[in-house]
Every structure is written in structure tokens, then in C-alpha cells.
Amino acid sequence: MAPKAATAAGAPVATAAAKATAASFAALAAGFDYLDASSIEQVRQAYRFADEAHLGQLRSNGEPYITHPIAVAAQCAQWNLDAQALMAALLHDVMEDCGVAKSELIERFGAPVAELVDGLTKLDRLHFTTREESQAESFRKMLLAMARDVRVILIKLADRSHNMRTLSDVPREKWGRTARETLDIYAPIAHRLGLNVTYRELQDLSLRHLSPWRYEILTKALFKARSRTRDLLQKVQHQVELSFAAEGMNMRLAGREKSLFSIYEKMKQKHLSFAQVTDIYGFRVIVPQPLDCYTALGILHQLYKPVPGKFKDHIAIAKLNGYQSLHTTVVGPAGVSVEFQLRTEAMDVVSESGVAAHWLYKTKSGEENAATADRLGTQWLQSLLDIQQETRDAAEFWDHVKVDLFSDAVYVFTPKSRIMTLARGATVVDFAYAIHSKIGDRTVAAKVNGEAVPLRTVLKNGDVVEVITAKVSEPNPGWLAFVQSGRARSKIRQHLKTQAHTESQGLGETLLTHALRAEGIEELPPVNASTQAGWDKLLRFTGNKNLPELFTEIGLGRRIASIVAKRLATLLIESGVKPNPLLLTRERYGAQEQPMQGAVTLDGSENTSVKYATCCRPIPGEAIVGYLGRGEGLMVHSADCAVVKRLQHKDAERFTAVEWSEELQRSFETGIVVTVTNGKGVLARVAAALAAAEVDINHVNMGDEEGQDTTDLRFVISVRDRSHLELALQKLQRIPAVLSAVRAKPASNGN
Q1: Could you report the per-residue pLDDT of 357-367, keeping only the tens digit for each?
Q2: Is a pLDDT exceeding 70 seen at residue 91?
Q3: Which of 616, 608, 620, 612 is nearest to 660 (CA)?
Q4: Of 6, 116, 281, 453, which is least surrounded by CB within 10 A?
Q5: pLDDT, tens digit, for every residue of 58-78?
């Protein structure tokens, strides 16, 4: 029994020794061989400060808390991050958990380190939830912190990696949320930045904690498959090494195994069993120069027959995250397919470390490749800042970014043979905005491979795209229905918002002028030194910063023009302006002795500032009224619309007089109902009659009255005015199969 007792007694001692080693600076410093002595000393000072700050704190597994910052710093050291990043990794929890002030960090370690720690602290406070709004705001803050200094997200990814490795130590009820958050947010960011080792590890650890049973089953199956294929893989390795040696070519051969998560996803998406997944194992051939990759490809294809359609050249056209490699699948011994990836040492660094290769290049290959590495991911990071400048709404920001984050890539060419990398599914408009926002704004037409195509055309690999622009062209709101990139979407929305803002401002000024006429004052006073005091008083009354903002709020319906006009009239009267009695009488009272205001004239050119209600679809020639919805601008209804009658009871002050212009700029939509007897070719005859009346059909609903003798055809058509509509209805009524043709009645429920 004595030996067992000794073993039992020795176990805590061994555990304590392991914990002490994990918490020591010596184990961490072993990975600092790329740093100079002064940098190592700076990191040592940060370690001492963090160790003292976290003294007495323990992690869930009972280890001293300092083991976590050390593990994070060790991961950063594997990426060869600089001393400032390592110091921030060690200190990343001291502000949040230990109450250390940012000013103290600035004093002890300098402003750059303090800023990194502050950025990480803000990220640590973010808690992603399933609620879209909260997730969007959190994601927005994290991406902007990353865009300002990519080291923030590198340290955060190292932090998340260690937390996932030790997730089994925390209560099981926390596994799901943390693993799902990692899979949805952090793993895609790691992939987008080219951190493929971290990306695969985060995916596998997420699967392990989201589906423990499946993870264990796959682990056992993979272990058995590894045993079965060991001899085959050794044979392939031996044959490849002999072939390269015979050609006198230097190379390094490394094995590659598909991650558990990738195997699981492939099985799920393609409904395969584990035995049907054929690309679990492969090899990487590492050669000195890019040209050697193509030579090595020839050697492999002489040794084994390539599988048709399984060759990809990611050297000539790199992936979005900077990944470069040749991929080929060959038929190896016993007819087993084997994948090979051919790359240089530098490409291998980038494939595993992505944006972190910036520091690896500097330390391993000098400055020669630093510029290339520095560009990895920077285009995407810069686009985040561009989108943020134009998009203040967090949910909209998330909508723009997630398309770029979770997309594959397509590679196209400009007419001058410049390669452009776009998201999978990108259209001609996405291409135009990728070149420059002004090119996108002014796009009117395009050619793909020399042939004219619609702007919504989806681009394919290898397409040569030419964009045709015009100085007077502007973005079309319809583009939002098909553009794919976050950049294009944000640019279009920003332009439309600016346009709507300008139009709302003009409408608001017109409404206020008309309302002021009802108070007996002909026009708005000019803004000059003598009137500035009065305008300032009005702005204090409304709470607006300036007149354009006030006009915009009136145009959007957020303020009532008549109320603002009454206050403005009072201020003008106090300053000595006298109302015109004749104007006051003419404007305020009409034939029915009802209060009135000068009417807003509509000709159809108002764009986004004026909308025509779909409940009644008003057209020229009939009486109309305008309703200023809260934040919606001016909504025009037919005077007999049921929705109007209901609104007049509760929101009478929001109605304003509107009238049709004598010169209209476009046609207007309205609805008609055509009741027909069922028969062959009836719809075609109805459509032909509408075309003969020069009416455009915008939408048709045929209903679902199967087996009935009659059917109601509901059309949305465009007409010039009421007379044009009557002409169209008369032509329809002459068709023998048409029982009736009438205008659709305004809905009573507002739909």
C-alpha cells in the first residue's frame, strides 16, 4: 500500500509544480527569441505588474489567474507580435478585473500599450446575444477597434482561443453561448484575416462543446481512419520524395489532415457518411520559389494522374485573405484520391498566420516581404472605416459587413487586365463601386467580355468587365435589391439618404412658407444680421441646431408647419412686421369658412420627399390631401380614402393642402379589378387592350379561384391621369370575356 500512498501524495505536488511553471515568466520568455533584450525587459515589467494585480485571483480550474494572460501572450509570441502587443496581452484584464486606471498604464507602459489594453477591455465588456440589435452594436464596436489597430483583434483571438481550450472547466450551461458566439463571430474573423490555424482550432473547439457526442464519435472514426491509411500515406510520401530527388529539386513535404469541423460540415451539407469523405488527408509541398510550385506540379502530374476539374491556381490569383497556393487532386496508389497543396515557405507562413504574417515576415525574412504582408487584410479593414463613416446605425453596419465577412470570392478583370477580387455573387454594380465610389454612383451601363449586359448581371471567374458612366447619372434605389458587397450597399444608401435629406429640406421650407402665408406674412424673412436674433429665438423654441435641420424635420413630418409658423409670425410681429390683412383673409378662410394653407403643388418629380399612398393610389384629376406622417415625409392620399377619414379624427393638424400641377412629369400607379369569364387566352386579350390604351402593367394578381366560372384579375397599372384611366377601362369593357372593369376601391384598413 505504501507505493500507492506515495503516488497519491505526490499527485498534488506534481499538479502544484505544473501550475507554478504555467504561471512563471521563464516558460513564456522561451518564445521571445525574436525580441531584443530591452524589449524582453519591457515585457517582464508588464508580467510583474499583471502578476501583482491578479494576485489571489483563480480561474475556474483552480489555477492562478495569471496563467491566462501568460497563455494569451504565448500565442501572440507564436505570431511574433511586437513587445507592445505582448505587454497588452499580459495586461488585457487588469483594467476590467483589477480596477487599474488607464492613466496608470500610460504612466508605467506608455500610451500605445494603454490604448491596446483599453480597446481589449471594451471588447471584453461586449456580450453577444441572439438579439440582432445587441449583436450588431457589439460587432460594430469590435470591428472598428480592429480596423484602428489590428493587434487588438489578434490579442482578442488569442484570448478567445485560450478560453475555448479551457471551456470544459466552466459550468456546462455556459458552453453553448460561448461556443456559438465563437463559431458565429470570432472564427469567421480569424478566417477573413487568414489566421487559418486559429480558425480551424476555434471551429473544432466550438463543435466539441456544442455537440460533444458527435465530436467524440468523429474523433474515434478519424483515429481509426488514420490507422488504416498510415501505410498508404507513407507509400505516397516515399514515392513523392523519390520523384523530387530524381529531378534534383529541393522541397519539404508535410502531411495535412482535414479538421473535424470541416469533416462534420461536409457530411451534413452533402449528406455523406464518414466513409464517403475522401479528402481527409493530403500533403503540402513546400518549395523555395513561386516558379518552383509550377515545376513541382509537373513532377506530381507525371507521377500520378490528376483528377479533372480539381486544379486551382491561388498563386496567380490570391484569395481575399492573402492565401496563395496551388491545389491539385491526384489518383494515388490503390485508386485513392490524394490532395496536394504546393507553395513557398513565405506562402506557407501567410496560409497559417494571415495578417499576423506582417510580424513574421519582418523577423524571419527581413523587410523584403513586409510590404506584401502588410497589405493582407488591410483593404477589408479600411473598408470597415469607410462604411462606418457612412453608416451610424449598428444593425445597418452589421448588414453591410456580414456579406463581406462570410462570403467566398470571385476574380474578374478590368479592361486593362487588373485583377479585382469580389464577393461571390457580386454584380456589375459591385464591381463599379470596388473600383471607386464615384464610378459606382455614375454607372449607367456595362459590358462583360465585350457584350452589353444588365447592371444586375452576376459576375463569374475570369470575366472582363467594362463600366460605362455618365456625369448626370445617380444611384438607383433598385440597385439595393441585387448588390452583394457591403461597400456598394453602404455607398448607395448614403447617397439616397443625402438625396432624401436635401429633398425633405426643400419640402419643409415650402410647407413653412405656405403656413406662414396663412398667418398673413407673404414669405420667410431672409437670414441676415437684422433677422438673426428672431431666427435664433425660433430655433430655441423648436430645439433645432440650425434652419436646414428645422426645415428637414418639417419636411419629414417630425414638426407641424402650422405650429412653427404661428411662433415665427409672433416673433416677426414683435419685431415690427405687420401681417397683410388681405392675404390673411384669403389664405386662412375659403368658401367653407375652414382654415386653409397655401397648397403644395405636385408634378411627380418629388422623388423621396413625397410618397403616394398605396392604400388608394391617387392619380391626377381627382381630389387629394397630404398627410405628414412622423418621420415619413409627405404622404399623398385620395380625398375619399378611408385611411384619410380615420386619420382626420386623431391627427387633423398633420394634414396639409396639396394639388396637382398642370404639367406632370410622369405617370402614376393605380389599381383596377377586371372580372372575366375563365377561358383560354383571356389574360392575353386583357393585356393587349391595356397596351393599346398605352397603359403600363406593373403588377398582376390572378387570384386562386380554381374551378370557378369567373376570375378577378387585379392589376397595378401606370396612367397619366383620371381621363387616361377611364379610356383604359372602356377598352377593357369592350372585350366579350370581360364582365366588368373598375378601379380598385381604396382599402378601408390602410393596406
Answers
A1: 555 544 444 44
A2: yes
A3: 620
A4: 6
A5: 888 888 888 999 999 999 888
Give yes or no for residue 707 having a pLDDT over 70. Answer: no
In the predicted model, is pLDDT for residue 178 greater than 70?
yes
Complete domains list, the chain, with CATH: 21-213 (1.10.3210.10), 215-374 (3.30.460.10), 378-489 (3.10.20.30), 495-660 (no CATH), 668-743 (3.30.70.260)
* Pairwise CA distance, residues 698 & 421, whole Å: 37
Amino acid at 227: S
Band of the pLDDT at 8, cuts 50, 70, 90? very low
CA nearest to 328, candidates 354, 350, 302? 302
Sign of the dihedral defined by the CA atoms of residues 487, 488, 493, 499, in that order = positive
Average pLDDT, the chain: 78
Distance between CA 509 and CA 555 in Å, rounded? 8
SS (H, E, C) 601-617: EECCCCHHHEEECCCCC
> Is residue 284 helix, strand or coil?
strand
- Give yes or no: 96 in active site: yes
Strand partners, 64: 58
- Among 33, 93, 96, 653, the active-site one is 96
Per-position DSSP letters for 619-657, written without gaps between them: -TTS-EEEEEETTTEEEEEETT-HHHHHHHHH-GGGEE-
Catalytic residue among 41, 52, 93, 97: 97
- CA–CA separation, 619 and 481 (whole Å): 27
Q: Of 702, 697, 694, nearest to 716 (Cα)?
A: 697
Residues 503 and 555: beta-carbon distance below 8 Å:
yes
CA distance 241 to 243: 5
Q: Rounded distance, CA 610 to CA 597, Å?
A: 18
CA–CA gap between residue 165 and residue 197 (Å, rounded): 14
Element (H, E) at 584: helix 581-588
Q: What is the torsion angle, in degrees rounded to the nearest 10, for the CA atoms of residue 406, residue 412, residue 414 and residue 420?
A: 30
User: From the CB of residue 216, how many other CB atoms can be counted at a distance below 10 Å?
Assistant: 11
12-16 long-range contacts, CB within 8 A, separation 24+: none
Q: Considering the entire predicted model, what is its pTM?
A: 0.51
Q: Where are the alpha helices (DSSP H) in 428-471?
A: 428-435, 437-441
R_g over Cα of the chain: 35
pLDDT band at 137; cut points 50, 70, 90: low
Are 77 and 31 in contact by the 8 Å Cβ rule? The answer is: yes
